[in-house]
């Protein structure tokens, strides 16, 4: 029996030592597909484990009212938050799609502490800007946004980022385009002034903060690893407390990233 199989085994050994180029190409192609699928499943698994949408911004930007409007559709009086609030948000046109909205305090002494707690779970970030007070607060807004953008965890995970230009119901509100231009200008300046900082937001020794944007070029949001979009909205709404909020663009963006 063994003698009859020996010629066949020898032929198999020769094939393995000198495989057919066509067979080898097929095997390599199958291996490449398998590796790609494994990487895709790994990335999707990491993304699906991040279900939180963080609402960030300075005090009085309108985060908490925006949070309430998204969840209930109703207006409510709010006050400065000193802790986080969270709730499940279901996409209006797809109730099976949901995420956790987390409203974080905007006070200077609290905001980085709470961001540190929740940043690893962030699928997306809504950075709320007071479009009426923007010209007065632009440096503070840019400083907080800079700290978010150079954080090592957020750079690695690259959550989608929406700059929500709130309070557009007020006549003196600045447009999203102007806000984007001013923020890019301020962030460009902050790159230089923060270049000697010894640690990152999470406190790790890095020899300085991460490079924001592309070295040698004026900063713009397209240089970031995460996709950044701007939208105009009004949590109060053009009809005031009795009317609906004006944030269709925000709702569409949340549906897109769900």
What this model shows, in words?
Helix content is 43%, strand content 17%. It is an alpha/beta fold. It has a 6-stranded mixed β-sheet with strand order 2-3-1-4-5-6, sandwiched between helices. The protein starts with a helix and ends with a helix. Residues 42-47 have low confidence and may be disordered.
How would you sum up this structure in a few lines?
The protein is an alpha/beta fold.
Residue-averaged pLDDT, rounded? 84
Tell me what portion of residues adopts beta-strand conformation: 15-25%
Q: C-alpha Rg, in Å? A: 25 Å
* Fraction of helical residues: 40-55%
Q: Estimate the global geometry from the Cα principal axes.
A: elongated
User: Count of DSSP E strands?
Assistant: 6
Termini Cα gap: 63 Å
Low-confidence blocks of residues: 42-47
Oligomeric state of shown chains: single chain
Q: What descriptive keywords fit this protein?
A:
258 residues, 6-stranded mixed β-sheet, 43% helix, elongated
Describe the secondary structure blueprint for this structure.
Layout: H1 2-17, H2 21-48, E1 52-57, H3 63-72, E2 85-91, E3 94-103, H4 111-118, E4 122-130, H5 134-149, H6 152-157, E5 160-166, H7 176-193, E6 228-232, H8 248-257
Parallel strand pairs: 1-3, 1-4, 4-5, 5-6
Antiparallel strand pairs: 2-3
Helix pairs in contact: 5-7
